[in-house]
Amino acid sequence: MTSSLRRPLLAGNWKMNLTLSQSVDLARTVAEAAGSASGEVALCVPFTAIAAVGAALKGSSVRLGAQDLYWEASGAYTGEVSAPMLVDAGCAMVVVGHSERRKLFGEGDEWVNKKTAAALKAGLTPIVCIGETLDERESQKTWRVLETQIAGGLKGFAPADLSRAVIAYEPVWAIGTGKTASPAQAQEAHLFVRGQLKKLYGEGLAQGMRILYGGSVTADNADSLMAQPDVDGALVGGASLKAESFLRIMRFQRA
């Protein structure tokens, strides 16, 4: 059974989608349904929508998140957004090291580490993403990749520092492809990640930290994924852009 210490988290990652009016409409629908959710709900929205979505979520239990940040608090960094800015805009969470950031924009574990530190310092909950590519999985490198990303991304923190952090396991080959890790594959990876956390930070942190699954999560597969004992929620991409599918994921049922 999933530990009672770990409240499920269903986080929508809207990526680079939706106009302001569409964002507000969807946020209001999610907020109205949050009371019947099977866990905590968050929406990670584009920077341009943060203020508007924050207003739409006001008074609800849905947490507002951003999709990235820069590690400096302020300065001459044209085009970047800092952790204090996100907090000021009403954010409680931020995605760090998403595979699209790693693949398309060259972010490595060192940047992930700095961004995680900045998020934690500002009081944000970082959703730290890890995961292997198809080539890495097929060449039997999955565990090495996950071990390296966890060690590098979380380097230098004490267990107490990470008490607020969340891990998201995203097999890169399953993101936006329609392919999903089977429930057994997801459980195997999540159990490995928890084992690495235990090795690095001790049993207490490992059992308390939420590990989300991300990678073509849909209304149809959410129940089977969430039934796995080490799957503590989902980071949902495309299915979070449609109210019907995301609300069904929010109301997942464990067998």
What is this entry, summarized?
With about 260 residues, this protein is an alpha/beta fold.
What does this structure look like?
The chain is built from eleven helices and eight strands. It is of the alpha/beta class and 255 residues long. It has an eight-stranded parallel barrel, surrounded by five helices. α1 runs parallel beside α2 and α5 (109-122) packs across α7 (142-153). The chain is globular, with a radius of gyration of 17 Å. The mean pLDDT is 96.
- CATH C-level: Alpha Beta
Continuous helix count = 11
* N-end to C-end Cα span: 11 Å
Q: Mind telling me the CATH superfamily name?
A: Aldolase class I
Secondary-structure topology with pairs:
Layout (H helix, E strand, L loop, with lengths): L8 E5 L6 H14 L6 E5 L5 H8 L5 E4 L16 H6 L4 E4 L2 H7 L3 H14 L2 E6 L3 H5 L3 H12 L12 E4 L13 H19 L1 H6 L1 E5 L7 H5 L6 E4 L6 H8 L5
Parallel strand pairs: 1-2, 1-8, 2-3, 3-4, 4-5, 5-6, 6-7, 7-8
Helix pairs in contact: 1-2, 5-7, 7-8
Structural features:
255 residues, TIM Barrel, eight-stranded parallel barrel, 11 helices
